[in-house]
Design goal:
This protein is α/β, with parallel strands linked by helices. The chain is about 20% helix and about 25% strand. It contains 7 helices and 15 strands. Strands 3, 4, 5, 6, 7, 14 and 15 form a 7-stranded mixed β-sheet that branches. A 6-stranded mixed β-sheet has the order 10-9-8-11-12-13, sandwiched between helices. Strands 1-2 form a two-stranded antiparallel sheet. The radius of gyration is 21 Å and the shape is globular. The chain starts with a strand and ends in a 6-residue tail after the last strand.
Length: about 325
């Protein structure tokens, strides 16, 4: 970003299936707003890191959902952590850090009510506000504890276990005394789950013997199956006997728990500061021009842990 220009990524056309590089999004350059352009209660927000999330593909579809779809020509939706460069808000002085849905842009004029102040916990990183202390961590927290109602002695299976949400789900389950099986897409990820995150067991779904190994690992009833959007409680490995086994299937939206975010973040931050929760991030450098391919890589399972896009710092 120069002193007078900034870049942003806009939706050019809706993908029929997968995101198409060079077609789905377009990179645009704009004149940078000045401090004098701000109205009362507004700030000039400079993004430092953008969050890349699985939900983004759903936001591109022109269908009914929990949030309106991104419109053609609009800046791609997404959360960011950044710094206030100019301000006409007492809540966000110049130099303060904040998070908000700024979208895929280097600069954004935002209302103070659209931002949240950032408090870094002990042993915390700036990027934790988009990961373990952000929507992915909160999804894991409420999904497992409120919807899944995990308890000591439960057997919990987590798919996408090496991802931002799944990795936190498994660790919270362990903290609550559950036995955890993680499912991931590479041997390296399986090793990370077992060695670093202390999952009881982990399997590579790309292994040619995965089906056999999964059956062997789930001979007991699964109490909670967390599939990053789908929770199955008291489930059988073969998905039969739904009525007789009282299987419960429930979807949830983390935004429904907004009033409880502070309490959840406090507990997550405590676990993080005590070293009870570990995290890993995939940082993609190179500016917004790399965002499109970085999102595609996310769906292809290239990342481990939270996937983040760092804006490119340019001078001139």
């Amino acid at each position: 970003m120069s002193s007078s220009k900034y870049s942003s990524v806009h939706l050019a056309q809706r993908p029929r299936a997968n995101i198409v590089p060079g077609e789905t999004f377009v990179l645009k350059t704009h004149e940078a707003p000045e401090a004098s352009d701000l109205k009362d209660g507004e700030v000039l927000f400079q993004s430092l890191y953008l969050s890349l999330d699985p939900a983004m593909r759903g936001w591109l579809k022109d269908t009914r959902s929990y949030v309106p779809p991104v419109q053609i020509g609009q800046v791609m939706r997404g959360a960011a952590i950044g710094i206030v460069k100019a301000s006409r808000s007492d809540d966000f002085p110049i130099g303060s850090y904040a998070t908000g849905t700024a979208g895929w842009t280097e600069l954004a004029v935002m209302k103070s009510k659209e931002l949240q102040r950032v408090d870094f916990p002990k042993n915390g990183r700036i990027t934790d506000t988009l990961g373990v202390l952000g929507m992915t961590g909160l999804t894991a927290y409420f999904g497992l504890l409120d919807v899944g109602k995990v308890k000591a002695g439960d057997f919990v299976v987590v798919s996408g276990a090496a991802g931002a949400t799944g990795s936190v789900v498994g660790q919270i389950a362990k903290l609550k005394g559950a036995r955890v099986l993680g499912i991931a897409g590479s041997d390296d990820k399986v090793q990370w789950l077992e060695d670093d995150l202390k999952f009881d067991n982990a399997l590579n779904y790309k292994d040619q013997d995965f089906a056999k190994k999964f059956r062997e690992a789930t001979k007991d009833l699964i109490d909670v199956f967390f599939d990053n959007g789908l929770l199955l409680c008291s489930i059988l490995p073969n998905y039969l006997n739904i009525i007789s086994m009282r299987i419960r299937m429930e979807g949830f939206i983390v935004f429904d728990y907004a009033k409880q975010y502070p309490e959840a973040r406090k507990e997550l931050a405590q676990w993080l500061s005590e070293g009870k929760i570990q995290r890993k991030e995939t940082i993609i450098k190179g500016g917004l021009a790399k965002a499109e391919n970085a999102l595609i890589d996310l769906y292809n399972g290239v990342n481990t842990g939270k996937s983040l896009k760092i804006k490119e710092h340019r001078s001139g």
